[in-house]
Amino acid sequence: MTRYYLAIDIGASSGRHIVGWQEEGALRTEEVYRFKNGVTEADGHLTWDVGRLEREVRAGIDAALEKYPGLESLSIDTWGVDYVLLKEREPVLPCYAYRDSRTETAVPRVQGLLPFEELYARTGVQFQPFNTIYQLYADKLAGRLEGVTGWLMMPEYLMWRLCESAPPCGHEYTNASTTGLLNAATGEFDLEIIKRLGLPESLFGELCQPGTPLGEYKGIKVLLCPTHDTASAVEGIPMENGVEGTDQLFLSSGTWSLLGAKLPQAVTTPESRRANFSNEGGVGYIRYLKNIMGMWMANNLRAELCPGEDFPAIVRAAQESAYPGLVDVTAQRFMAPGSMSGEMSAALAESGFDAPKTCGDYFRCAYRSLAKCYGESVRELESLTGRKYATLYIVGGGAKNDFLNRLTEEETGLRVVALPIEATALGNLKCQIRAEEESQC
Ligand code: LRH
């Protein structure tokens, strides 16, 4: 009898419900529901409408059930770092989005208590102003932690809402590894960091691994997949198994570009800190990667300069342009600019380039700058891990951009294998199938 599973994969700009099943040894999938996601501006802040996300999750499950009435299990993955505070069973609203600027005062305060050199040596997580550690400290400064009895990362929250009677679950390891609060050596919350920041210790319990059951919704088992979308994406890439000696790299190319290697152990050296690499938790390995501003730039440029234009036409225009300027795609100025094209023009002017004139000029600059950053990151990875790499697997929406793939090949010198697959949903599904098989043993 064929068993059907449901992966709910929610990114910062869209969410999708994908049903998967095994057929003749292969994992087959069908997308049954898709919805738009995005931040909501409220009182000058960027927030997530968690009520709407929950409604979309439920509507998509109903759509899946209509076609596949006997779903075995489901699981949700989302972007990392964001969370919902709870007072008993009630969410504390608003739920802030990671691009909000509320951590501006928290970052120097945290660094005053815990110099970044020490924090990195303990956690191995690259500096990003939106890391959960800074967001939780911003909550503390704003008095938002008073009376709080728990907090759940976004996918944990959404799954908990489905299994109403269940107590809030523990934190899932892969997503917890994006908080900047895990100890890289133990893989558990680092209580020394939590004490030094004066965060309530009772909020940081033991972690749960992917595969852990949470409860049931409409007769479907709800369980933890690798709930950080990048962790699921890496599980969904058909890279060589094993982490020792492999010469393969991954690039999950969506709103963000996550470029890295699977490693057996974390690298927390000062060189790694200076190169701003992160050690995130994988399923039995470390995802050693760099978080690079990805399609976020191109998506914003399109919304500003040519809304409604399809990407193949945009990519052709970029290819035909001869614009020579490049920008640093990791610069914080591109995180949430008022205008992406304006910010790019300003950065280009500062490095002595004339302003781009056409749409094609802007996109050429964005794609070439991205590929250049990929090249630099691969060289850094080689020097930090002491390995030589041969192949780069690219998954996610960006894998469909042949021009960018070619530039990436030129800049990295690696063989690029671009896979137009929903790797995140595949990784989410694989973990559910594994959990089911293990429960049968
Ligand atoms: C990609 C991602 C990335 C995080 C960012 C907030 O979707 O999860 O790994 O750093 O979103």
From TrEMBL:
Key words of the record: ATP-binding, Kinase, Nucleotide-binding, Rhamnose metabolism, Transferase
Record bears the keyword ATP-binding: yes
Pfam families in the record: FGGY_C, FGGY_N
Organism, scientific name: Acutalibacter muris
Start and end residues of each Carbohydrate kinase FGGY C-terminal domain: 250-435
Assigned protein family: Belongs to the FGGY kinase family.
GO biological process: rhamnose catabolic process
Name used for this protein in its record: Rhamnulokinase
Domain Carbohydrate kinase FGGY N-terminal: 4-216
InterPro entries reported for this sequence: ATPase_NBD, FGGY_C, FGGY_Carb_Kinase, FGGY_N, Rhamnulokinase
GO MF assignments: ATP binding; rhamnulokinase activity
PANTHER family reported in the protein's UniProt record: SUGAR KINASE, XYLULOSE KINASE
